Amino acid sequence: MPGDPAAAPAPLPPPPPPSAAAGPAWRLLGTSREQLCLEFTLPTGQSFRWRRTGGGEFTGVVGRRVFQLRQDGGGGGDVAWRVIGRARGEDEARDEEALAEYLNLGVDLAALYAEWAAADARFAKVAPLIPGARMMRQDPVECLFQFICSQNNHISRIHGMVERLCSTYGTPLPLIDAGGGDVAEAAARAEQQQQQQQPAWEVGRKRSLSEVEAAACATAGGPGGGGPLAPEPEGDGGSGSGGDEAPGTPRGAAAAPPPSGDAPPPRRGRKGARAGGAAAERDAPSSSSGSSGGAGGETTAPEPFAAGAAAAAAAAAAAAGAAHFAFPTLDQLSAATEEELRALGFGYRSKFITGAAAALRARPGGGDAWLRALRGATAAEAAAALEELPGVGPKVAACVALFSLDKHDAIPVDTHVWQLATKYYARHLAGKSLTKKLHPEVAAAFVARFGERAGWAHSVLFISNLRQSQALMAGAGD
DNA sequence: CGTGGACCTGGTCTC
DNA sequence: AGTCGCAGGTCCACT
């Protein structure tokens, strides 16, 4: 534990007023921009659970808490945070501890940057443009399934898939100050909104905003003030068409993807699937899967069947940005069927998700514990163990190892990293094609250069490469 | 053992 | 309004 990383000299003024007027008070994390830059940490592909919610603010779920983070644009770049949602049973007093662990705040990132810059001239050149790119420490289960979704896929779509996974199978997280605090109510309200077909949560997604803020983060000079890009004035309230439906009826099945053109249409939505196909065995009420053990304990009944009903409303709520969900547990995930996931748009990854969930649950001691135990294993052992799971190859295994299992020297070798490697750090591999056997070799090259936290260093280079390829670094001098 | 395809889908780049 | 052997891979079938 390298002491307090930040060492911000002056106690910064209270954080700027966030977009949302009301809500819990904001608190400062006590970090500097060099220790933690949200722009280079949250939306760079480590996790797909963070969204921009306007004006430089990020909203995301950590464990069973909904956090909002924002970076002080002017001064030292301290990060303001607050919790706007929390599962019952989670202690408010441990909010900050949970966030600090998730953000790996015990690691002195500025010191590492200095080491890496000394070891590599190329790093020294690009790093100043990308300060505070920090590795997070995610929950292994959450991380694993996110990256199973990531294969051969667009980042934007991965976000949507992860969102649907959570809203369909995960536990809703009640908002604090949500007026009444009843999730069902919020979900119902959201469902009404959802009928207006308005993807409010897309506000601020991608767009050049990221570029603006990236610049702001890198220069620390001009906060730019890209404007709080106000969402469409839909407002929330609106048409109180008083629930025309019983809360229990998952009319939200409409949220399912539209029928594809040619392929054998997988019915639609969870409900359609049941009603359409096996009318005979429909509703054979959870007889088999009902007793999934007392794990859940939530009042929302994580049972498969109930999940369907709750899921629709939940998905609607999520679509309207009105609710947040914990990432589904393995038990909750086990309620998913391949057919259902396909209807939710997971494509051929559906069988990987159900397969991996089943394989994990079959592990002695439970999949969650099995995964966590890999934190004590070597990088090679962890990778080998992860690759036993369906849908997990070397790249996904490395992502999970680096982003959730403390394997700080793991290098996820994708097409971008392969380019970096053959160009700068493992030139002898140039011309070859990336085979499974070459992954360790590429990783070794990065470790040889950057040391035991090569995975962290790789992230900086990766981001730099992305930015460059997107011509976002234009004018940054070259 | 290394290589070539197939694989769901939809955002992005072009007619 | 269409298109892409695409897109931060993996699995499977062959040579």
UniProtKB/TrEMBL annotation:
Keywords: DNA damage, DNA repair, Glycosidase, Hydrolase, Lyase, Multifunctional enzyme, Nucleus. Pfam families: HhH-GPD, OGG_N. The keyword Nucleus applies. InterPro entries: DNA_glycosylase, HhH-GPD_domain, HhH_base_excis_C, OGG_N, Oxidative_DNA_repair_enzyme. GO terms for molecular function: 8-oxo-7,8-dihydroguanine DNA N-glycosylase activity; class I DNA-(apurinic or apyrimidinic site) endonuclease activity; damaged DNA binding. Residues 236-245 have a biased composition (Gly residues). Residues 309-453 form the HhH-GPD domain. One of its GO terms (biological process) is nucleotide-excision repair. Residues 8-19, 256-266 have a biased composition (Pro residues). It catalyses: 2'-deoxyribonucleotide-(2'-deoxyribose 5'-phosphate)-2'-deoxyribonucleotide-DNA = a 3'-end 2'-deoxyribonucleotide-(2,3-dehydro-2,3-deoxyribose 5'-phosphate)-DNA + a 5'-end 5'-phospho-2'-deoxyribonucleoside-DNA + H(+). Residues 246-255 have a biased composition (Low complexity). SMART domains: ENDO3c (SM00478). Transmembrane segments: none annotated. Its EC number is 4.2.99.18. Gene3D superfamilies: 3.30.310.40, Helix-hairpin-Helix base-excision DNA repair enzymes (C-terminal), Hypothetical protein, domain 2. GO terms for cellular component: nucleus. Its main location: nucleus. It is found in: Nucleus. SUPFAM superfamilies: DNA-glycosylase, TATA-box binding protein-like. Residues 1-23, 217-302 are annotated as: Disordered. The keyword DNA repair applies. Belongs to the type-1 OGG1 family. This is DNA-(apurinic or apyrimidinic site) lyase.
